[in-house]
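Bug report

Summary: structure tokens for DUF4192 domain-containing protein differ between web form and batch submission.
Environment: batch mode, default settings.
Steps: 1) Submit the sequence below via batch. 2) Compare with the web form result.

Sequence submitted:
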Amino acid sequence: MTSTPHSPSEMFASIPGIFGFYPEESIVVLTLMHTKESCYQLGPVMRLDLKDLRYLSDIGDTLSAIEPDLVFGLIISGQKPEAIEDLRGLIEFVADCEIVPFDACWYTSAIESGGKYDAIWLNEAMTEAALEYQSWRKGRIPLIANTGITGEMIHAGHLPELSRKDIEKHYAQAEESEQWDEYLITERYAELFDDPSTSFRSAQECIDAFSQAVELMRTEKLITDAALTVAAFLKNKMSRDIIIECCVHNANTVKEALCYVSRHTKGFVRANALALYALCIVDSPWGNHITCVLQAAHNTLPFHHLTALVAEAYYRGLSGSIVDLVVSGSQEAQKHFGEATNVKSAV
């Protein structure tokens, strides 16, 4: 998704597409980076719950490293007018003190098609712009399904969730009674890698077996047995690294299998499934879920190295670099296991 919103109305309409859900009681900090002449490109976009405004200084620290050309605040809140006035005063204060270099801030009670928005603070340049363009002072949110980033997301077949909690539920663990016995995963791993009569002789055999298990899951045949095989590949760093390249190059096919496995496993296996899922969606319409996915992986295993690596790269805007890095590592793992392989069409 590469659309850049060009007005406050488009900014509000794009928020569900950026985050994958409709924020409430939030402030969204949206940045634009100057490219050429009068052209701007959408930069990092961050969100805070209104109850967490004490962390605005952290956003300011992040922005000082990025140095965006324009910084806009978008407040979504159903609070009473006096509370909104307090927010206006806070925005003016943090802008004047350069804690967060806001150029303008707008307010709406809810993100909905036809909803009203109003400017609650504009700097001098934006005040002049608002004299010429009324929409920079107040207006209505356009039809969300046809506008900007959210429109692109919907037209690609993906609907934003109603709230962040709905996204979190999608990546939550299943009930304890539905969790797979870790012994079964360990036993399957032993069959695949430790038993001389059944274990793999090459990296290509590993990838073929993983691909076959994913395909069985996709077609809903022998789903539990096939899913145990996928889980077994995620039990060990070596076996996980071998199949990373396959996952990245076949992301659309593999990601749902990884998500399914993550719901029914714990610890290292679940963290691996979520980290690989994050790599699969980083450049897809589901990319707006990645913060929830990485948080779920971190909550599962706080010191999981792959999760930390993906998270650091993502938050620094280096998603492409981390994908290239882990693919290179996967190729090395294949060589160390056995013969080098070409896995782009493995699934």
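Above is the batch result. After comparison, the two runs are identical; trailing whitespace caused the diff. The two ends are 25 Å apart (CA to CA). The CA atoms of residues 20 and 286 lie 8 Å apart.
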